[in-house]
Design brief:
393 residues, alpha+beta, Butyryl-CoA Dehydrogenase, subunit A, domain 2, Butyryl-CoA Dehydrogenase, subunit A, domain 3, 3 domains, 4-stranded antiparallel sheet, 3-stranded mixed sheet
């Protein structure tokens, strides 16, 4: 399933096609040759961000007057799809772009002018600090606090499993600004790591897969953050701001699952066409053909489903329920596809020298972050009862 054989998508414009070509060349030149090295060092090279910024591949929707490409948000989707087609899950561009979206949709004019140009250029790397050791999907149970003290907030607490945690310069922290305000207890605070005495990064977590993505614990010990860093300038809006972006975030996870599925198929097809057993190519066995047929069909079903959802998003947006459907089904299907591809590799599929083995470990987390499969099904189920979907992250 080479890029040349893929039909044009109904939602892509000519401008998006040009962005896709630029992203493909960039990923082939800057990501593919470095994946294994990055896995060993536990993070991508810092200058990757600067290089991507020069090509206009960060924060596509940032206006040109703020240093961005001035494109539609869908351009970000195209770029992330090309990253996934390299089999890479290390570069934390997706989370970086989500923080950019928070600023674009909810930031004050001063906040946009202050941070968006540096985020677009790659000078600053962003992280989103939501998850805590005692609060995963249920955001209302977070314990991190940001208490107003004059012209600043005092930030206390800890976060875990934070993408870009070792390298982030700007961290969007979910914290309670009023413990007694119910659904309005949470606010989002933008913290510059270099200007935050009392902030500490924990270890780069030793994960099963996604070795090149720096994923960290973060600790806040009475950190003073200027009050002007409150996203949007109004307390108690954090839960709304988070929920507002989750459908877009889950759509991006689905798009990435498609790209990774294509990569797994391409790697496996080449392997079974070259490898021989019992005097013939593995691809000539009927079982191999049946399995490849199943995988290719699942990919095309995923592509059609995502095309429909993307068009719906571009014409007004997808709701929480549809986003949950995208997230759980695409990631579960991705994991099934990669497992089948490992099986077709035989024993070599379990050797890390083959990309499919690395991918096998990498994709398992897709069923967890961005909302677990179980939480997604719960959100969908609530739509049948008439209850409003909750804050699952």
């Amino acid at each position: 399933m080479t890029h040349e054989n893929l039909p044009p998508r109904p939602w892509m414009t000519e401008d998006m096609t040009l962005t896709q070509e630029t992203a493909r060349k960039f990923c082939d030149a800057e990501i593919t040759p470095n994946i294994e090295r990055w896995n060993k060092q536990g993070r991508v090279d810092r200058d990757l961000w600067i290089k991507a910024g020069k090509f206009g591949l960060i924060g596509a929707a940032i206006p040109s007057e703020l240093g961005g490409p001035g494109c539609a948000p869908a351009h970000d989707m195209v770029i992330l799809l090309e990253q996934a087609r390299t089999g890479d899950l290390g570069w934390g561009l997706g989370i970086h772009n989500i923080v950019i979206t928070y600023l674009l949709d909810h930031g004050t004019p001063a906040q946009k002018e202050r941070w968006l140009p540096k985020l677009a250029s790659g000078e600053m790397v962003a992280a989103l600090a939501m998850t805590e050791p005692s609060a995963g999907s249920d955001l209302r149970n977070i314990r991190t606090t940001a208490i107003r003290d004059g012209d600043h907030y005092r930030l206390n607490g800890s976060k875990i499993f934070i993408t870009n945690g070792q390298t982030a310069d700007l961290i969007c922290v979910a914290a309670k600004t009023d413990r007694n305000a119910g659904s309005k207890a949470i606010s989002l605070i933008l913290m510059e790591a270099a200007k935050a005495p009392g902030f500490r990064r924990g270890r780069n977590l030793d994960k099963i897969g996604m070795k090149s993505q720096d994923t960290s614990e973060l600790f806040f010990d009475d950190v003073e953050v200027p009050a002007e860093n409150l996203l949007g300038g109004e307390e108690g809006r954090g839960l709304y701001q988070l929920m507002d972006q989750l459908p877009w975030e889950r759509l991006l996870i689905g798009v990435r699952a498609l790209g990774l599925s294509e990569y797994a198929f391409d790697q496996t097809l080449r392997y079974v066409q070259d490898r021989q057993a019992f005097g013939q190519r593995i691809v000539d066995f009927q079982n191999t053909q049946f399995k490849l047929a199943e995988v290719k069909t699942k990919i095309e079903v995923m592509r059609g489903f995502l095309d429909s959802c993307i068009m719906q998003h571009m014409n007004g947006g997808i709701d929480v329920t549809m986003a949950a459907m995208i997230k759980w089904w695409s990631t579960e299907t991705l994991v099934q596809i990669v497992d089948d591809c490992v099986q077709l590799h035989g024993g070599y599929g379990y050797m890390l020298e083959y990309p499919i083995a690395r991918l096998y470990a990498d994709v398992r987390a897709q069923r967890i972050y961005g909302g677990t499969t179980e939480i997604m099904k719960m959100l969908i189920g609530r739509s049948f009862t008439g209850k409003k979907p909750g804050a699952a992250g």
